[in-house]
Amino acid sequence: MEWVSYEEKQSDVNLAVELLTDAFQDRFDTALVISADSDLLTPILRVQRDHPNKRVVVAFPPNRSSAALKQHAPCLTIGRDKLRKSLFADIVSSPTGFPLHRPATWRPAARAPGGRLE
Fold first, then answer.
1. Alpha-carbon span 13 to 114, nearest angstrom
2. Is 26 left (phi over 0), alpha (psi -120 to 50) or beta?
3. Is the CB of residue 118 less than 8 Å from the CB of residue 109?
4. Model confidence at 110: pLDDT above 60
């Protein structure tokens, strides 16, 4: 018997709480929510309803989207090329000089001759 399990990190709940808190404390004019999780629709709608002067824009990761979010908020898609160009170096130093290493799985894929990704 095979059992598939998913770990709930509550990241959508945490993001929703922070979005609502920041709106109520007037910490933003425009919030950028980077997600395609339709569970975030309710807090986005609540911000729009209770704070009509605030704007929430949704940015979808590559190859992800949500019809529900598209219907209720301005949306854009972050292209893979933009992400690739935004990566930190393999090693970055913290303010104290401690080296922070990027995991190998986060490194960009090598390009084959002709520019194709392998």
1. 44
2. left
3. yes
4. no
